[in-house]
């Protein structure tokens, strides 16, 4: 691949200083950024580079969708106007029982990846059944993906029990070990669908393999009530007791968190995957992202599925996240544009263990 020179009017680097460069060029050599220098210097030093001129454009890092269910794209709009538990029990789970299979997930993933690529997403973190089909779609379209090994207690079309899911998922990870664009995580669905013994096994496997963990957590008030009734504690406390909570945990949603929850997330350096459109559509609530950030919790942005969002537009998601942070906190200065951009790029990359490779426009990435 010949050296490339990309020359926009502005570059938002999302580096540690949130640098905004004017009239600079990004020089790309193969798969890596070689340099970011003033555009006249770039043309002088690399006169033979293939040049892409972008006057009036802002260049940003590739967006990172920190949470989605790509294969569910064929269920877009299937469960509108229902709260989470009815959405799952009355629409999504019956439809999955009737329709779910390898072809369904592959086709849905292809559609999802096209939609994400058109919106600037270059990396996504997925949680869905038949991850081998999502991997095949990502490979076919040149997309970077972190695929969750989906774990629930009840039988699914992909696996009959948690041990079966773990065995299949780890075997898939071994088969795709040499593909640098495909990585894996352990993906227990939620506290209300996964038992203590399974969570303990997941925590042990994560420590043994280095795989991160992603889990829907504190999404609804009902989830909190059920956990208090069944386990005598809030879901986050339960997972902490079981060894799941740590810097490699991606807590998806984290809508209903109190001060103690936020302190626990911050202490263990957990990242929250914030999915504002999904939280609003399912009436799950409003995530207090401003308080999370103030206490040092890293927040990334996810779309969730098209069944609970209807779109996979991460820029729209970041815009809504910024507006909600202002409205919920009562502070117009909360979540300025640079914070929203960081949440949609570098924060997601760091949460997925890719912060040294992607998420900002810096030499070597």
What descriptors fit this protein?
365 residues; alpha/beta; 5-stranded mixed β-sheet; 4-stranded parallel β-sheet; 14 helices; 13 strands; globular
Describe the structure in brief:
This protein is of the alpha/beta class and 365 residues long. It contains 14 helices and 13 strands. The strands form three sheets. Strands 1, 2, 3, 4 and 5 form a five-stranded mixed beta sheet that branches.
Describe the 3D structure.
It is a single chain. The chain is of the alpha/beta class. Helix content is 41%, strand content 22%. The protein has 14 helices and 13 strands. The protein has helices spanning 39-45, 84-99, 102-118, 131-141, 162-175, 196-209, 221-231, 235-241, 259-267, 276-281, 289-294, 314-329, 337-344, 346-351; strands at residues 4-12, 20-22, 24-29, 32-38, 50-59, 63-68, 121-127, 144-151, 182-188, 213-217, 249-253, 271-274, 298-301. Strands 1, 2, 3, 4 and 5 form a five-stranded mixed β-sheet that branches. Strands 6-7-8-9 form a four-stranded parallel β-sheet. Strand 11 (249-253), helix 9 and strand 12 form a beta-alpha-beta unit. Helix 3 packs across helix 4 (131-141) and helix 12 (314-329) crosses helix 13 (337-344). The longest helix has 17 residues, at 102-118. The radius of gyration is 21 Å and the shape is globular. The model has no long low-confidence stretch (mean pLDDT 97).
């Amino acid at each position: 691949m010949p050296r490339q020179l990309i020359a926009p009017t502005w570059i938002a680097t999302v580096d540690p200083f949130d640098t905004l460069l004017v009239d600079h060029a990004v020089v790309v050599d193969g798969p890596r950024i070689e340099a970011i220098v003033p555009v006249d210097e770039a043309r002088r030093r690399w006169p033979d580079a293939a040049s892409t001129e972008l006057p009036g454009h802002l260049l940003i890092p590739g967006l990172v969708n920190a949470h989605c269910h790509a294969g569910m794209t064929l269920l877009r709009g299937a469960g509108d106007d229902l709260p989470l538990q009815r959405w799952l029990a009355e629409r999504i789970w019956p439809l999955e029982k009737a329709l779910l299979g390898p072809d369904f997930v592959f086709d849905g993933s292809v559609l999802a990846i096209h939609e994400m690529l058109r919106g600037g997403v270059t990396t996504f973190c997925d949680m869905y059944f038949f991850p081998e089909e999502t991997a095949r779609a990502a490979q076919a379209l040149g997309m970077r993906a972190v695929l969750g090994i989906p774990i629930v207690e009840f039988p699914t079309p992909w696996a009959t029990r948690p041990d079966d899911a773990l065995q299949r998922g780890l075997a898939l990870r071994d088969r795709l070990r040499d593909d640098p664009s495909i990585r894996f995580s352990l993906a227990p669905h939620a506290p209300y669908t996964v038992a203590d013994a399974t969570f303990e096994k997941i925590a042990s496997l994560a420590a043994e393999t280095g795989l991160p963990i992603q889990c829907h957590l504190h999404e609804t008030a009902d989830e909190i009530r059920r956990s208090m009734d069944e386990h005598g504690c809030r879901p986050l406390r339960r997972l902490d007791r079981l060894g799941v909570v740590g810097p490699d945990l991606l807590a998806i949603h984290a809508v209903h968190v109190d001060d103690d929850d936020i302190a626990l997330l911050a202490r263990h350096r957990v990242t929250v995957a914030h999915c504002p459109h999904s939280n609003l559509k399912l009436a799950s609530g409003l995530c207090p992202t401003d308080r999370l950030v103030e206490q040092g919790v890293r927040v990334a942005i996810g779309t969730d599925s098209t069944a609970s969002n209807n779109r996979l537009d991460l820029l729209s998601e970041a815009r809504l996240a910024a507006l909600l942070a202002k409205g919920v906190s009562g502070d117009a200065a909360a979540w300025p544009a640079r914070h929203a951009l960081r949440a949609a790029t570098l924060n997601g990359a760091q949460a997925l263990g890719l912060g040294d490779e992607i998420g900002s426009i810096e030499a070597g990435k």
